[in-house]
Amino acid sequence: MPPGITTLAADAPTLSAANTGFMLICSALVMIMTPALAFFYGGMVRVKSTLNMLMMSFISLGIVTILWVLYGFSLAFGNDIGSFIGWTSDFAGFSGIGVTELWDGYTIPVYVFAVFQLMFAIITPALISGALADRVKFTSWALFITLWVTVVYFPVAHWVWGAGGWLFELGVIDFAGGTAVHINAGAAALGVILVIGKRVGFKKDPMRPHSLPLVMLGAGLLWFGWFGFNAGSWLGNDDGVGAVMFVNTQVATAAAMLAWLGYEKLRHGSFTTLGAASGAVAGLVAITPSGGAISPLGAIAVGAIAGVLCAMAVGLKYRFGYDDSLDVVGVHLVGGVAGSLLIGLFATGGVQSDAKGLFYGGGLDQLGKQAVGVFAVLAYSLVVSAILAFLLDKTIGMRVTEDDEVSGIDQVEHAETAYDFSGAGGGLSTRPTPPAPGTTGTPTNKKVDA
């Protein structure tokens, strides 16, 4: 608010049906991103791990929702305590929130803001799962999610977005989750895989995606849902900032996909569907923190840079020997770092705030702030996630046995398989029954137990 202007009672925000409806739709779009992620990851693994990969995302919908209502929302967005964490007793259990009570300074109810942020909290640990494919006990994974969101995600969300959070007060720009979601998840993935080790046969056996159509379906749904993820993060639709973010989301994603494919063609000689899907996700990741601070031309640059950097980064696991199964580190960590730091170069000062990047006359000030945010979240998440994985591994164990991993984690952990090749399915098969002896006629079909 400009100095010298007094806020009158009549100027206080009132509930906007339009903004409330818009944010509920955006919340639903972000929710669909978690099943979309499950499809994306599920298609990238081998057949014997498909259901486990789907379930590692789906279980987050259950666990994080309950934790968010009980205490997560209060820790992330309650009254600030020491710039590190929040707490408001009325938010615990959603016990003291009025039906029409507005989120402070906005025209949407607290309930709407809470459910929108819940969907972010759900998908963030689900992102980690892609790095751990084929080898983690499902019970251990569920417990890891519970601990991780409590001691990593909820505090980091407060740092970045909570009033009084130390990165928020420093002036770090993160429109929709480059640090709190993508760097957070990518660093956590790296921390966990350094503890639990490689898959059996890593760098020896072929571990190709079993269903590229499923990967493309997941990527397309992620792209669709990401419009709610990004544009909705302005919490309203009154001043055009959300519209700029919507446009930049499309532009950067397209640029990243093309850049990844171009790099892939030059490096490997082919345009692959997996490259197209991965490039699109890299662009979505990179524009998430930056899209509210840059122009559409800047979005092209951010997307193209992220597409190439992430395409290069996915090969680092073979050079350094860490088994990031589905390239969570290469896409989400590297893409999140790139998108967050590029704000310090491309911020125009004319969209979400007046902060300008180096290329727009702002010097190195914003770049320095972005670097602090990037490396603080990266270091905290990496170290704490590794500690959590180590403790779980030494107590209940994080990994399935080698025999179970080789035979297939779907059967071991879920007693199911993704595809039924036995015929019609359903536990029965149809086979011809010959005529009874001494009679004439054609064979008939009879249902028998498979």
Features of the shown structure:
450 residues; mainly alpha; two-stranded antiparallel sheet; two-stranded antiparallel ribbon; 15 helices; globular; disordered N terminus
Give the radius of gyration: 24 Å
Name the average pLDDT. 92
Number of strands: 4
Tell me the strand percentage band: under 5%
Order of helices and strands: HHEEHHHHHHHHHHHHHEE
Distance between the termini: 72 Å
Strand order of the largest sheet: 1-2
The helix content is 55-70%
What can you tell me about this protein's structure?
- The structure is a single chain.
- This protein is mainly alpha-helical.
- The protein has helices spanning 17-44, 50-77, 110-128, 138-161, 166-170, 178-196, 212-231, 241-268, 273-290, 296-313, 316-320, 328-346, 365-395, 402-407, 409-414; strands spanning 80-81, 85-86, 428-433, 444-449.
- It has a two-stranded antiparallel ribbon with strand order 1-2.
- Helix 1 runs antiparallel to helix 2.
- The radius of gyration is 24 Å and the shape is globular.
- The termini are far apart.
- The model is unreliable at 1-10, 425-433 and 439-450 (pLDDT under 50).
